[in-house]
Amino acid sequence: xxxxxxxxxxxxxxxxxxxxxxxxxxxxxxxxxxxxxxxxxxxxxxxxxxxxxxxxxxxxxxxxxxxxxxxxxxxxxxxxxxxxxxxxxxxxxxxxxxxxxxxxxxxxxxxxxxxxxxxxxxxxxxxxxxxxxxxxxxxxxxxxxxxxxxxxxxxxxxxxxxxxxxxxxxxxxxxxxxxxxxxxxxxxxxxxxxxxxxxxxxxxxxxxxxxxxxxxxxxxxxxxxxxxxxxxxxxxxxxxxxxxxxxxxxxxxxxxxxxxxxxxxxxxxxxxxxxxxxxxxxxxxxxxxxxxxxxxxxxxxxxxxxxxxxxxxxxxxxxxxxxxxxxxxxxxxxxxx
Length: 337
Fold this sequence. Notes:
By secondary structure, the chain is an alpha+beta fold. The protein contains eight helices and 15 strands.
């Protein structure tokens, strides 16, 4: 059974000293995930190379270091508002550098990582995801991409948001939960909801909400958003202010509305919304720690990001730093024939 998710470590790359901090954090995360042999040191290399690139070539950049979404391992996300890369393929050449350093650059990151995704645009910045796990643990070919980031409020070590994902063949059931407030009590409520979700994630969505409502009755309560994705369609059910939508290359395709209330306290009878599947869309759930107005300034660069990058980009650009923030992105909803 899955357990509540570890928090994402956010490292602002505003000084070159952040490079060492990033390397240390990635190595520790790898060890915590049970990675063996040279893998913890390789995780440190991924983080140091990506932090070094941001420090030297970009501005307003950050690294987000966390366990992998679906298997034991480490993910390093690098997001910046720098100038972007005019020639991405040249920058991905192993050993290429524009700063006369001994670093091996993005080419080494691509070579070491077992999942590597990058998007860049001149004037819009760069987003990179480098993932590393034990050999043989890579998800099966064709597995839809998953991106998730879970960041506590500034000054907090615990996160009052969390997420869950259950996969059963072609059916994926996704959860984002936002415990009321932040800090220890909010984190306890979020963890209770995630544990209840994983007891039987195949239940109808209203049944899942009733299960979580019972589990949270002695907590401070939470907002909960659920999506179930299948080739037949997308089902949505939520109580509180967790946002849910489908995002395509052309912008927002669908928005889902949640019911007012608090799971664990005054939950209404849940209602399910169903819409047709969107073959090329990314499904997105996020807590209100991400400003919902991000869709008002949506650019083609952001709307075209794959799921592993979208979560990091939204948290980086639109997070409310005084609140916990969680984004879960899944997509595409259905593979093309």
